[in-house]
Design a protein that fits this description.
Strand content: under 5%
Number of strands: 0
Mean pLDDT: 82
Shape: globular
Low-confidence stretches: none
Largest sheet: none
Number of helices: 8
Structural class: mainly alpha
Helix content: over 70%
Radius of gyration: 20 Å
Order of helices and strands: HHHHHHHH
Distance between the termini: 57 Å
Length: 192
């Protein structure tokens, strides 16, 4: 029983730190979650992290919380999922609660505004790093390269032209195309 409490405390502390010290939302948190949960703690594998990233993006709710829930469940079942999720949520909840009480005055503080300029740049770098790491770790197939290239080009074009189009929709379209290719190639192999 002591071991169960130790792992639950570790889960809570890991996700509490990630939730408290990572700015920029879920995408910025992915690289930190991967570093801690895959490289340091060895709770999940790189393949698990790739899968949880896709699942977290495809299911309702914030992606970082979905990721924490998955890791917690993998490590310590339902209790682990609840503890990891609480660890991820509590820092943001507390910070937003404090900021909400002083929002008008908070945004007027020049020091805060200047700090957020640097934080925005850092968040952009974390998101970019997450994308590069996922690209490096994906299976090296022609179809994966084609989907990655087309998705990247489509998202750049959409952003450049300021078209309102969700990145989630791009993922769903790629998933449907991939499923179609799988079904069609399976039928062809069966016919041969």
């Amino acid at each position: 029983m002591k071991k169960d409490w130790n792992i639950l405390i570790k889960l809570f502390m890991v996700f509490f730190k990630i939730g408290a010290f990572t700015f920029g939302g879920g995408y910025a948190m992915f690289s930190l979650i991967e570093h801690v949960c895959v490289d340091e703690k060895k709770w999940i594998t790189h393949e698990d992290m790739m899968n949880v990233t896709v699942i977290a993006e495809s299911t309702p709710g914030p992606v970082a919380i979905n990721c924490a829930t998955f890791v917690g469940y993998r490590v310590a079942g339902v209790t682990g999922a609840v503890i990891a999720t609480l660890g991820m949520v509590l820092p943001s909840f507390a910070i937003i609660l404090v900021i909400a009480n002083f929002l008008d005055r908070f945004l007027e503080i020049e020091l805060i505004r200047k700090a957020f300029l640097g934080i925005k740049a850092g968040v952009g770098f974390l998101i970019f790093t997450t994308g590069i790491n996922m690209f490096k770790k994906m299976k090296k197939t022609k179809m994966n390269y084609v989907f990655s290239g087309i998705s990247f080009a489509a998202l750049l074009l959409i952003d450049f032209l300021a078209i309102r189009f969700s990145a989630v929709l791009v993922m769903l379209i790629c998933g449907l195309i991939s499923l179609s290719v799988f079904i069609l190639s399976g039928r062809r192999e069966g016919e041969i």
